[in-house]
Known about the structure:
Blueprint lengths: L1 E3 L6 E3 L3 E5 L3 H6 L9 E5 L4 E2 L14 E3 L1 E7 L8 H4 L3 E8 L2 E2 H10 L4 H5 L4 E2 L4 E2 L10 E6 L2 E7 L7 H9 L9 E3 L7 E2 L5 E6 L2 E7 L2
Parallel strand pairs: 3-14, 5-10
Antiparallel strand pairs: 1-2, 3-4, 6-9, 6-15, 7-8, 7-14, 8-11, 12-13, 12-16, 16-17
Amino acid sequence: MNLIHPDTGEVLRCGKVLCIGRNYAKHAAEMNHSVPSEPVVFLKPSTALVSPPDPVVLPALSDSVHHEAELVALIGQRCRNVAIVRALDYVAGYAVGLDMTARDLQATAKKRGHPWSVAKGFDTFAPLGSFVSSGAIADPQNLMLRLEVNGDTRQLGHTANMIFDVATLVAWCSTVFTLEPGDLLYTGTPDGVGPVDSGDALRVTCAPLPALEIRVA
Ligand code: MG
């Protein structure tokens, strides 16, 4: 999928899709995990991205696909080993997204000590909304994040409750990966994750970002 730089209009080819696990204490608790001492990072393939009007497609391999509403940062400039105080300079914009997760496959993988790539990486498992320039977001840690399923609120969180804030995540990830324009960072989900069914209408809001409305095929 191509992404549009919210300031320049430049078309960016999506690169890495970095995702953070257990970045809200209440979500870590609902998954029976302790709060991590450093970011829990995993990757999704860029082929998992999907935007409306295309739907989320439930894979035959899973009987339990969960929604995880997340704030997503778009990297706008190449960086490596960036300091926390400079890290947000490399973020071009923000959107809302969903880290769709085959919870049954993830549970099996955890039990076996296997990677999460399959549980997290199916086609359409990374719904993504439209980006707003980072210049228009005074503080990415002051946003209310809500997910509704068929009009019912299932997740309601605040980015102030992230364990590692966006700047820390960008800086930390840049010590491992060279970050490039078009890379995405899904910053973790608040509590309230749960299963979706065929036919569900998912709506993620995080004002002033545009809402993401996507259905489950
Ligand atoms: Mg997640």
